[in-house]
Amino acid sequence: MKPKPLNNHQDTITNTMYVGLLPFFAGALGPWIFPETELWLSQAFLLYSTLIFSFLAGAIWAIALFIQHELPKRHIYASIIFSLIPLLGYFLPIIFRTTLLLLGFLALLFWEKLFLKNTYPNWYQQLRHRISFIAVACHMLVIWNLMQEV
């Protein structure tokens, strides 16, 4: 059996993904430390969340290029649809935009678990699950912070 390419970079990928959580933590926890910057931190949080979400959606497109055992069209279409979610959120108030991204992260994880579970190594699936739920928890905290202002 041919080794999966991700396995050669497990440490790098794992460390990078954990470091990538730092801006989520800053946006979610920062308003408690610096309440006067809450709006700015929330907007920075959403910008970073949009960037990461779009990156993950784009990764589905890239995976579609290499999948041999099934038709890649559904992954290409899913990648496009997922990439449009942050664009739709751009036109919504900040609390709804945050909620939309939260739901988007869950939908993206569900898509990967449903259709790509045999593509990813087990360690990566577990890592994505853990990182996604931490990111979702940060979104929930940002929503809670924003609701305190209403």
Automatic annotation (TrEMBL):
The keyword Membrane applies. Pfam families: DUF3429 (PF11911). InterPro entries: DUF3429 (IPR021836). Keywords: Membrane, Transmembrane, Transmembrane helix. It comes from the Bacteria. The chain crosses the membrane at residues 12-34, 46-67, 87-111, 131-147. This is DUF3429 domain-containing protein. It comes from Candidatus Endobugula sertula.
